[in-house]
Amino acid sequence: MTDSQTILLATLPSAPAKAALPPSSIAPAKVAAPAKPAEPQHSNEAIERSIIDQSARGPVLTFFSTAIFWLLVSTVLGYIASKRLHDPTFILGPEWLYKALGIDGLLRSIFDTNFTYGRVWPAYNMALIYGWCSLAGMGVATWLIGRLCRVAIQAPAVLQLGAWFWNAGVAVGVIMILGGHNTGLEYFEMVRGARVLMFIGYLCIGIWGLILFRYKRTVAPYISVSYLVAGFFLFPWFFGAADLLSSAPTPGVMKNVVNAWYQGGLFNLWFGCLGLASAYYFIPKVINKPIYSYNLAKIGFWGWVFLGGLTAMTKLSGGPVPAYLVTISIAASILSIIPIACLTVNIGRTMIGHTDKMASSPTLRFTYVGTVFFAIAAGLGVLGALRGVDSFTHFTTWDYGVKHTLLMGFFSMVMFGAIYYITPRLVGCEWLSRTFIKMHFLGTAYGGATIIALFLFGGLAAGFTLHDSAVDASALNPGREFTFANVPQNGGWQHVIRTYIGYVFFGVAQIIFAIHFIFMRLRIGQPAGEPTLMSNPGEAH
Predict the structure, then answer these.
(1) Who's near 255: CB < 8 A, 6+ residues apart?
(2) What phi and psi, each to the nearest 5 degrees, are found at residue 430?
(3) How far apart are CA 212 and CA 230, in angstroms?
(4) Are 312 and 321 in contact, with CB atoms under 8 Å apart?
(5) Any idea what the Cα angle at residue 186 is, between residues 182 and 192, rounded to 5°?
């Protein structure tokens, strides 16, 4: 019996113990049906979710706002880095205006000194990895842990303080890299001061996430929570260890080993766990269907966590390191096919019969496309780990392509889908324009895919060129001796396309997204109610 039925019965008069009239005199009376009690506007669960969302509003919006800022910064730096490869005298902005203002000489001096490719590229990676990706991931993770553990965030100012410490560290790192202060360790180029600020910020964020999990009100954690806890627990371990070991008087070869191990943790266990947690939550949530197999999900989780940190030494294949380290990583890369297959099958079978919803739901479209990119990135990682393939791609842009498949194709797409779902629940209105959402998706998908494809194909082309013993140096570079340093110049057309199509399309899409997000922060959107869809269900596409 429901609560409404109990209340209704309690309001009816009690029947007498014995009838006062004989049975024959009792006629069936027409009793008017009681008015249907009005259903409560919000169920207890809805009220609980609303309380949790409001407690997360300040820190999560801080994470998202600063992450989008770094996304724009990274896009500009990526454009400059790509442009510098085929136009070394490039200055960002209208040069005619600078000449009219008399500052062209100053700007050229600044660009020639601080915006060379060797400085802009690591600054771009810093802004993309630690600015956009990490902050967006921590914002989504904070909201997910609160929702899935059913715990409201207490003292949200601690999380916001952590976010600002992290942002300060990223800003110091980017500025110092552009100023020429670089550790020389790939994806770990920021100076010690920047790392300390970031670590302090993370302690405020990560420990708070683990505390929320400690006081969870659910019996068995959802698979997304397992990924989030693993990511939050493992990141300070490899980030802190890499900081200590890289700062200590460690021999150069061992620093490379530490750096390779750190990269494996960063991309597989940090971004991999945060992104997969989001995918496992939002895809079933949007289509209102449980995941196909929870057992597959658990096998995939433990396989990914166990193998993800062991695959990193393939970067040192052929280098002066013990051969067993590289062999273990190659074996771990091959075995990682198991968790990759578990995820692919699980998501694919879950989506059966619901793929048409991608036409209307921005969250589902971004997230599902992101999981497809994850499978591609993981597959490319397995392929590139093989010694035969690595011998062709080792000193090329192939690895950049694999990393961008993971960051731009998988992680960024999944984060965009999560932000489209979470933000309306924090600000109280829906997204303003479906056209903006469509343009953002198309620009991100096609611009990002162009960048990724040219990195990958450019790496393969350079690899075959390097291994072609019969190459005609005069045909490649007339009047110039063929050397390794000339290989990047032979693919100049790739840099041009990547600059003017890849980064421009991707950048315009992110500007549209940033403007759309600013509207949401200002509560300039559609009234809360039906979500903003990319198209109406059943509409022709």
Answers:
(1) 185, 245, 246
(2) -95, 165
(3) 14
(4) no
(5) 45
Classify 329 as helix, strand or coil.
Answer: helix
pLDDT at 7 over 50: no
Lowest mean pLDDT among 46-60, 159-173, 227-241: 46-60
Among the listed residues 506, 395, 513, the one whose alpha carbon sits nearest the alpha carbon of residue 82? 506
Domain at 44-219: CATH architecture: Up-down Bundle (1.20)
Q: What is the DSSP letter of 527?
A: E
pLDDT above 70 coverage of the chain, percent: 86
Could you tell me the CA-to-CA distances from 375 to 87, 226, 244, 342 in Å, in that order?
35, 20, 33, 11
Element at 280 (helix H, strand E): helix 272-287
Structure tokens at 94: 């209208």
Residue 345: what pLDDT? 95
Contact residues for 408 (Cβ-Cβ < 8 A; gap 6+): 444, 448, 451, 452, 506
User: CB of 174 within 8 A of CB of 73?
Assistant: yes
Tokens of 195: 């790392």
Q: Is the pTM of this model over 0.85?
A: yes
Kindly state the tokens that stand for 318.
């052929």
Read off the tokens for 423: 């933000």
More confident site: 485 or 148: 148
Beta bridge pairs of residue 527:
429
- Is the pLDDT at 30 greater than 80? The verdict is no
Instruction: Give residue 478's pLDDT.
Output: 52
When pLDDT is averaged across residues 279-296 and rounded to a whole number, the result is 94
Distance CA 115, CA 83 (A): 11
Per-residue buried b or exposed e for 329-368, using 16+ beta carbons within 10 Å of the residue's own CB: bbebbeebeebbbbbbebbeebbeebeebbbbbbbbbbbb
Tell me, what DSSP letter sits at residue 33? P
Pairwise CA distance, residues 312 & 262, whole Å: 8
Contact 410, 377 (CB under 8 A): yes
Return the residue matching tokens 């110092």: 176
* CA pair distance 205, 148, nearest whole angstrom: 17
- The domain segmentation of the chain, as residue ranges, is 44-219
Report the distance separating Cα 398 and Cα 392, nearest Å.
Answer: 9
Q: Which two tokens stand for residue 488?
A: 């990047």
Tell which residue, 292, 283, 276, has the closest CA to residue 226.
276
CA distance 284 to 288: 6
Count of all residues that appear for the chain in the document: 541
Partners of 429 in the β-ladder: 527
As to burial, measured by CB atoms within 10 angstroms (0-12 exposed, 13-18 middle, 19+ buried), residue 19 is: exposed
